[in-house]
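Exercise: predict the fold of this chain.
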Amino acid sequence: MVRIGQRGAAAATAVVLAMGGAVAVRYLLTDGLVRHTVTADPVADQPRLGPPPGPLTTSWTRTVALRGSAVAGHDTVAHEVADGQVVTAAGSGLSVRDARTGVRRWEYRRSGWSLLGWTATGARVVAFLQRDGHPGEHELLGFDALSGGLLWRSSDGRPATVARATLHWPSGADTVLTASADRRELSGRSTAHGSRRWTVKLPAGCRLYEDAPRPADASDDLAALALDCAGPSHLLAVDPATGHTLWDRTLGADDAPEVAVRGRSVLVSDGMALRVYDSAGDQLVVWNDPDACGAGMCPSALAGNLLVVVRSAGSGARTEAVDLRTGRVAWQRDTPAYAALTEAGGRLYALRPRLADGLLPAGVDLITPSTGGAVTAPVPFAVDPDLVGVRPWMAAAGGLLYISVPEAAPRPSGAARLIAMRGGPAGPGPAELDGVPTATWPDACTLLKPADLVTARLPVRAGGPVRAQVAGVRLPKPVACQYDVQENPAPPKPAAKPSAAAGVMRPAPDGATVSVRWVAQTPDAAADLLASLQSTQAQARRRTDLAADDAYELGPSAGTIALRVKRYIVVVDATRPPGAAAHLARSVAQNLRALP
């Protein structure tokens, strides 16, 4: 390492280590240590294709821990897939991996500085970094996306707008959009050398939002930016290559809207309604529901001339396809509340936070865009979409499906887990159950014997069966059994509502529930799935005294225990008497040992 007196000389004076095609550059500036690796290894581009219908299996995975950002609201992780690479942006910097293998290609990190924004367009990535504790000291850096080579750097300018949830800001057509210091001018900079291509003044009385969940988005053809104006907000559409104003529309509220660009169409949720604008700025569809998208922007994807949107509807969701040529709804379906949606190769992929109520794994629906028909497959991990810090995300390319989900571990900040999935081998059972035959699922009401209830100091009563269905596959045996201590308990409901975090069926007051959460193909697959469940929990404690292969107490008390025996995952929930959950879990584990 070499001490450099001036920041501008840092790239020219460094210690270079050649390592198998990658070059690691480490240099010490007056304001921080930089770790910058570049690579000369070629990368194969990926066609826009996802995996075919059927079972899915993990190709590779990576976990990125969240770090406490020096700037509030910027402790997140986001991803993008392009040109055969996966770009990961976090507060600590940029990391780029081979999309096929997950092998690291290049990275840029700088101690004492935080990444507060990033964008990618064409074959370049641009980052915005700010020195910790010095909000007036910041830099824009342009990188070659394939090699990681530093193309340019500038301390003049800042992102036009940054999405708080992803740190992403708009760019397109090899142009990154930046703002003046007062945020009343919008500029387009070349991603190749950082020079200004154009500058436009915003409408009088308007400025760009500085801190909002998702105030802008862009494609190569259109950039849509929300404007904070006197009165209601505006939505401004410009051509990113030239800065030419395409259209300007007044929205229904003065709060910061959430914006998504799909091709040349724009979705905007403005706190009053969810609206769809076409390339000319004509409003095609409006859903007059302030809660149409819930807490964030509605998942959406473009498939040909169809814009597919997932919006909230009561306790579930409704997925609708809007024909952009006519503005008519081509089809609509009641669906799960999909956490993410993407399109590739004429197929839509939608992420279910739960495969079905009361079951552990998440799932993926593969949707036919023209009809809305779907097939479902489980994925080998659990999802809690309500965890803060990372929004679930999906992309598909090269026959792989990329999914990023939040995790509570490592605690207290959590992490983002990125999983690359490919098509898996078919099993003897239905694909909806990962090929496991339905007959091998145990009856949850046989996992406790009368003597087991006595040991736990619970009344000896027959349990109430709860059944489950995954898409069109109905499990023939009860997946859960509810035990009530009352003399004349109410009849069990046909389905139990799982909690948001763990999907654990809640028992009747003062009672207990035993639920078979999953039957995996192998013990190793079951172990991985249970580990994924505990990683989504804010509080999880390992138990080694329950005769199970793996077991965790979940939540603030000892009333919920998730355990694994061989390839079976079961959750036991008992509120009273004290210690009942542990007694029941031990009995369930011993009874599971007798199963094949």
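Check your answer against the key: The helical segments are 450-455, 523-535, 580-592.
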